[in-house]
Structures are given as structure tokens and as C-alpha cells.
Design brief:
The chain is of the alpha+beta class. The strands form 10 sheets. It has an 8-stranded antiparallel beta sheet with strand order 4-5-6-7-21-18-17-15. The relative contact order is 0.09. InterPro entries: Alpha-glycosidase_related, Gal_mutarotase_sf_dom, GH, Glyco_hydro_31_C, Glyco_hydro_31_N_dom, Glyco_hydro_31_TIM, Glyco_hydro_b. Residues 582-667 form the Glycosyl hydrolase family 31 C-terminal domain. Residues 259-573 form the Glycoside hydrolase family 31 TIM barrel domain.
Length: 759
């Protein structure tokens, strides 16, 4: 939200009160409290009348400093609030006549005692950012709405990333961003998943701990500052020191939560009925048979909205006209080794029997006059489940348990974005702050049911809405996009941006959602989709089985589905890292190469895990330009090499794309390509790429529960490439060098390969 008219003037009707100095400083229980008047105090009489801001500085964990500013403390709503870790570590506090300082780990904040206001954040002897004059304060707009505001300096060359799922350019500089969940598709500035957290290439991140609408002006109102503001009387933000982007993400997710590890089966191919298409059990069976007949591995079958009766979403009752025997159908699908996912949402249509049941029990969201909140969007007379009520959550969860008992394995938790603010929540939560937070309660309710019924390691969602903390509840997908190359690119930008907010697992609709994709779009999207963390064929008004496009589509889908299955020892290892450290499986190039300025703005390519570079082809003719960081990289698909740093221009067929292995990497591949969940250690092959003399690398092959199944050490000394098993049960395994040298070990613990002099 912009308050200024240029640099000096405020917009008409706007009144400002900025912190002028740290006039009064006290220390208590590890907190540095500052009273900052909004006008200069030259004599005693100046302390009468006018706002004074209370600024509390503290630390929830090492290398993180919390800044909480309050105007009227009695006007701050108590709920909802994000669940943020607070260890209250030992800090160093120093106060003298010139400044007050608090240090946590390597991060220090210093507040100047006299005018003008100045609060600086530094680490390692280097200033990261600062709040200077006319930065921290309060604003009143022409309608007398009250806002708290802060501005942090952007240094020359400093770039900003993050703020949730955003479909525009990855670098946020010059953008105005409102943290406000809405259902707007992938081609607009609004987003389904809004996260008030950003990080910069200067070694720090900023998390604004406010669940409601936070407005960011990223070098847009004042080009040398990031401004953030929120309506109300309090504003809290946390400065998170890195110094690397990966370190920042590790600390941010340590504060707000890390992803649960999804089950290995969820990494296979999902096939959907699509949305408004006609389907029944015969249609579903024909799709499943068609996949099997064409040797296309399938892991999950998804039933979209019309598994239920029209006008009654969601009442969790199968439409008897098209699915007269749902239990039998699910049993038959399970006998074929498939998992089953059902579409749900948090709304109750008025035609459903559950509407009267929920209204009578008080489980539906109400207006201030006590009536049930309703409108005719999506479903006629729809109401919303009030997830702030424990009883309503249990009521909703009970409906899901019946489906799980029937054989359902996962839920697609659609919607949850456009939550009204003219309502009263059961727990008294502030409606404006609950708007985004609702998505967390909704998805948490469903995830908890799955974890309780299936076990924590078996719970997986396909969620669209999210906010801070939502990363704990994977998987998320990018929402409704068109079936074009442009939409494919914007979907990728959204996923990379979301990953920079700690979301480890992300997917998208292969082929696009709206419209029927051209066969070229479909085939290119298949390669991108199977080289994403999760892979789903889904559309709106048309089916997404590949033979409806052309026979080459079948071949392309088969090749990339089987490639992903073979890569599962590596990919599931990256998934385990995402759960343990908060680093996304699909990583923006800047996250892995923060010192390579060539990677700063890249948003059409990514690292899949730590060692695979993927550049989706966004054209029908196969022409692509992509960037290769320093070193000799190896093409995974044919073993040829590419040397960086620099840009490459290439042309690829539909069965190919730039898929490069990082120099010095060891990629573990599995012995099976027909499913994603198998014993990864049995028959695993360790592929060493551009392994330098003297290098050593430890490779952990995960079990299906995420624990280590086998651990290997790969090293090179002169012309000897050596691997040894450090732990794990004896099982056949192989070592292969990128230059095609290979050796196998039935059950022994050591393998050596002799390399030629040029290698």
C-alpha cells in the first residue's frame, strides 16, 4: 500500500507519525524495550500529547532478531497467530548514551539514542539493512484507518525474492505485493499462497509475523527501500541472518515449521478424471486399462469434483448415478496397485443434507447478525465450515474418516482462499487476520485425519491455498492455468517463488488446466511435470490421457515416468532433505548459486534436488536458451558435457530437454522403473560425474520411511575411483563413472574403477 506522493509528500488525506529517536530504553528478560516518540522531545512539555511507539527487540533463536512495534496495545487482536518457535536464546545487550544494541549469534541490531531514528542490522562486521528516518511509524488514511509501517533499506544491487507463490518475475524489486489469498489463476498478480517472508541476495531474510493482509512495496514506493504495512496497531517482523539463501531458509523453517515427508508412492504419476468431463467407473477403468496396455506406470488415480452429486459439494457422498458401487470400484483399483485421491473443499452447498446438519450444530461460519454466511459462488447457497471451532473440525474430519475407511488414500484440498471478512468466527478470531489463516486450519484438519488413519508417513494432500506454516502440510499445486507455453512458464515461476518460502514439495497440472493443450504443449509439459517433485495429469473440460493427443505423447510420458522412477533414490533423498532442512526439492538457481550473478534473475530453469539442473523447453520447435554455472556439467540423458559459466542455445526433441548433472555429483539410481516406491538400496547404482582427484562424497540411499537404508562413501585418488558401503544391509549395488566405466558388487562393501588419464 502506497502512502506517499513522491519522496517528500504524503498522499492527500494521509497522516504519518514516524519514530524520531530511542528516547527511553529499558532491558528486561532478554528484551530491549524502546519508547520512540513520533515527534522530537526537546523539553518536558513535548512528552504530552502525540503517539509514542513501543519497540521491543528480542531473539527467538540464534541469528534471528524480532522487532515488535505497538501503538495501542489494547487494540491488538489475540488471534489468530502463527505458531512461531521461540527458544529465547542467550543474547548480549549493551546500552550507553549513544546507542542500544542486542546481539543474537552473529546478528546484531543497534538503535541510535538521539535523532534521527536509526536502527541497523549487521552481521560479520557488515551492515545488512537498516530502518532510518521516516521508516518506522504509523499511518492514518483519509478513512481514518490505522496502519503500522516499516521501511528497510535496499542497498545498490540488492535483489528481493519470495513473498509466497507469485507468477510474475522471480525478482520482486519494483513490485507491489499484497499478502492476501485469492482465487485468481496463475496469470495475475494475486495468488493462492501468500507468505509474508522475503530474502535478499545480501544475506538476510525478513518474516513479517502478521497473519492478515500485509502490503509490500518492494522498491516501488521508495525505490531504495522495502516497505511493509498492515492495518491495525501492531507490526512484528524478524530479521533472519544467513549468510547464504539456504541458511536463511533453514532458519526460517526452523521458526515456522518444516514439511512432513510425503509417502514415496505420491512421487509417481497421478491421473485425474479432469474437472467437468463426463466420467463414470467405465471411464475410469478405460483410462487405467489404457495406461497399463501402453506400459505407462501409474501410481494414483484422482477423482475430481463430480464424484459427488451436483449442487451438493461437499457432502462426501458418491453420486449413485455414475458410481453405484464406490466400495467395489475402490477395491478394484486398489487390487491393481493404485492409490486413490478425492477432491474436496471447505464449502457446503445448500442442497446438501450436511447444510442443515452443520447449521443446526453451529459448524458453519456466521454473519454478525447470527445468520449463516452464504452466497451463490461455486455452489448454490454455499456456506463455509468454521474451522476455528474444534467441534466443526471434528465434524468435518468425521466425514473424511468414512471415505478413508472405504479405501481413499489422499485428498485434494481445493479452495480456501476467498474467505469473507464480514463474519464472526467461533473462537472470536479477528476476521481480517483469519482470511489467510483459514487455509492453514482447513489443510491441517485434513492432514491430521490422514496422519491419524494412515500414519504420519502416509499423509499427503494436494492443496491449493496456504500461508505461513502451510509448508508443513504437503503437497501444494500451482492452481488453475491455461494450456499454453506462457502458462507453463508462469506456473514454474510460481513454484520457484513458493519454494523460496520453505515449501518443499510442489506440483502443477501437466498440460495446463483451462482448454485443451496442443500436443506440443502437452509433450513439453510432460517432461517438466515428471521432473517436478510431484506429477499430475489434470485438466478442466478435456481428458489428459496421452493417447488422445498423439502416439508420441504416449512415448514421451512413458520415458519420463520411467526416468523419474529410476531417479527415486536420488529424488527421495532430496525429499528427506526438504523435510529435515526446509530446502525445497525444486530450487531457484539463486538458492544454489548465490555468488553467480548470472543466476540472480533466472526463473525458467531450476535445480531438482542439489545436483540436477532442469530447463523446461517452452517452445514447440524445441529451441531453448539456458544458463550453465561454472564447471563441466554432464547431460544425464546422453552423457555428453557442457562447460560453464555461460549461456547455451540448443534445440531438443520432445523426448529431451536440458537435464544436467552438477560437477562432482554422485546420483543414485534405482533398479526399477515401473513404480516410485521400492527398495532403493537393492541394486542401486552410484553414478559419479566429473569427480575430481582427491574428492570424497557421502551418499545416503533412503528407505521408504526416510531413514538411511544404505550409506556409501565415494572417493577418487589419482586414477582410482573407489566406493565403499559404510552402513546398510548387504545387497547388490553398482558404481559407474560418467565416462561409462562400471563395476558391480553382489554383496561386497568395496568397488574400485580404474580411470584413464584424461578423466
Amino acid at each position: 500500500m502506497k502512502f506517499k506522493d513522491g519522496y517528500w509528500r504524503l498522499r492527500p488525506g494521509v497522516r504519518a507519525g514516524y519514530a524520531t529517536a530511542a528516547f527511553d530504553v529499558t532491558v528486561r528478560d532478554g528484551t530491549l524495550r524502546v519508547l520512540a516518540p513520533t515527534r522530537e522531545i526537546a523539553r518536558r512539555g513535548d512528552t504530552i500529547d502525540g503517539p509514542v511507539l513501543r519497540v521491543d527487540l528480542s531473539s527467538p533463536m540464534p541469528d534471528v532478531i524480532r522487532v515488535r512495534t505497538v501503538h495501542f496495545a489494547g487494540s491488538v487482536p489475540a488471534s489468530p497467530a502463527f505458531d512461531v518457535r521461540d527458544d529465547r536464546p542467550d543474547v548480549k545487550i549493551a546500552v550507553d548514551g549513544e546507542e542500544a544494541a542486542l546481539t543474537s549469534g552473529d546478528l546484531t541490531v543497534r538503535v541510535r539514542r538521539d535523532a534521527p531514528w536509526e536502527m541497523t542490522f549487521s552481521a560479520g562486521g557488515r551492515e545488512l539493512t537498516r530502518s532510518a528516518g521516516k521508516s518506522l511509524g504509523l499511518m492514518r488514511d483519509p478513512d481514518e484507518r490505522h496502519f503500522m509501517v516499516e521501511q528497510l533499506r535496499l542497498s545498490a544491487g540488492e535483489l528481493v525474492y519470495g513473498l509466497g507463490e507469485r507468477f510474475g518475475p522471480l525478482v520482486r524489486n519494483g513490485q507491489s505485493v499484497d499478502i492476501w489469498n485469492e482465487d485468481g489463476g496463475t496469470s495475475s498478480e494475486i495468488a493462492y499462497k501468500n507468505v509474508p517472508f522475503y530474502l535478499t541476495n545480501r544475506g538476510y531474510g525478513v518474516f513479517v509475523n502478521h497473519p492478515g493482509r500485509v502490503s509490500f512495496e518492494v522498491g516501488s514506493e521508495t525505490v531504495s527501500r522495502v516497505q511493509f504495512s498492515a492495518e491495525g496497531h501492531d507490526l512484528e517482523y524478524l530479521i533472519i541472518h544467513g549468510p547464504t539463501p539456504a541458511d536463511i531458509l533453514r532458519r526460517y523453517t526452523a521458526l515456522t515449521g518444516r514439511p512432513a515427508l510425503p509417502p514415496a508412492w505420491s512421487f509417481g504419476l497421478w491421473l485425474s478424471t479432469s474437472f467437468t468431463t463426463d466420467y463414470d467407473e467405465a471411464t475410469v477403468t478405460a483410462f487405467v486399462d489404457g495406461m497399463a496396455e501402453r506400459d505407462l506406470p501409474l501410481s494414483v488415480f484422482h477423482f475430481d469434483c463430480f464424484w459427488m452429486r451436483r449442487f451438493r459439494w461437499c457432502d462426501f457422498v458418491w453420486d449413485p448415478e455414475v458410481f453405484p458401487d464406490p466400495e467395489g470400484m475402490l477395491r478394484r483399483l486398489k487390487e491393481r496397485g493404485l492409490r486413490v485421491c478425492l477432491w474436496i473443499n471447505p464449502y457446503i452447498g445448500q442442497a446438501s443434507e450436511l447444510f442443515e446438519e452443520g447449521a443446526a450444530a453451529g459448524h458453519l461460519l456466521r454473519r454478525p447478525d447470527g445468520t449463516v454466511w452464504q452466497d451463490d459462488h461455486w455452489q448454490a447457497g454455499r456456506a463455509l465450515v468454521d474451522f476455528t471451532s474444534p467441534a466443526a473440525r471434528e465434524w468435518y474430519a468425521g466425514k473424511l474418516r468414512g471415505l478413508l475407511d472405504m479405501g481413499v488414500d489422499a485428498f485434494k484440498t481445493d479452495f480456501g482462499e476467498r474467505i469473507p471478512t464480514d463474519v464472526v468466527h467461533a473462537d472470536g478470531s479477528d476476521p481480517e487476520r483469519m482470511h489467510n489463516y483459514y487455509s492453514l486450519l482447513y489443510n491441517q484438519t485434513v492432514h491430521d485425519v490422514l496422519a491419524q488413519r494412515r500414519g504420519p508417513g502416509e499423509a499427503v494432500l494436494f492443496a491449493r491455498s496456504a500461508t505461513v506454516g502451510g509448508q508443513r502440510l504437503p503437497v501444494h499445486w500451482g492452481g488453475d492455468c491455461e494450456s499454453t507455453f506462457e502458462a507453463m512458464a508462469e506456473s514454474l515461476r510460481g513454484g520457484l517463488s513458493l519454494g523460496l518460502g520453505g515449501f518443499g514439495f510442489w506440483s502443477h497440472d501437466i498440460g495446463g488446466f483451462e482448454g485443451r493443450p496442443d500436443p506440443a504443449v502437452f509433450k513439453r509439459w510432460v517432461a517438466f511435470g515428471l521432473l517436478s517433485s510431484h506429477s499430475r495429469l489434470h485438466g478442466s473440460g478435456s481428458y489428459r490421457v496421452p493417447w488422445l493427443f498423439d502416439e508420441e505423447s504416449v512415448d514421451v510420458l512413458r520415458a519420463f515416468t520411467r526416468l523419474k522412477a529410476r531417479l527415486m533414490p536420488y529424488l527421495y533423498g532430496a525429499a528427506v532433505q526438504a523435510a529435515a532442512e526446509g530446502l525445497p526439492m525444486m530450487r531457484a538457481m539463486h538458492l544454489e548459486f548465490p555468488h553467480d550473478r548470472g543466476c540472480d534473475h533466472l526463473d525458467a530453469q531450476y535445480l531438482l534436488g542439489p545436483d540436477l539442473l532442469v530447463a523446461p523447453v517452452l517452445s514447440a520447435d524445441g529451441d531453448i536458451s539456458y544458463y550453465v554455472p561454472e564447471g563441466v556439467w554432464t547431460r544425464l540423458l546422453d552423457g555428453t558435457t557442457v562447460t560453464g559459466p555461460g549461456w547455451r542455445g540448443e534445440r531438443h526433441g520432445f523426448d529431451s530437454l536440458p537435464l544436467l548433472v552438477r560437477p562432482g555429483a554422485v546420483i543414485a539410481t534405482g533398479a526399477r522403473d515401473d513404480r516410485p516406491d521400492y527398495d532403493y538400496a537393492d541394486g542401486v547404482t552410484l553414478h559419479a560425474y566429473q569427480f575430481a582427484d582427491g574428492a570424497t562424497r557421502t551418499v545416503t540411499v533412503p528407505a521408504l520411511d526416510g531413514t538411511p537404508a544404505a550409506v556409501f562413501e565415494v572417493s577418487r585418488h589419482g586414477d582410482r575411483l573407489r566406493a565403499r558401503r559404510l552402513s546398510g544391509a548387504p545387497a547388490p549395488w553398482n558404481l559407474r563413472h560418467a565416462a561409462a566405466h562400471a563395476a558391480a558388487a553382489p554383496e561386497i562393501d568395496h568397488i574400485e574403477i580404474t580411470l584413464s588419464a584424461k578423466e
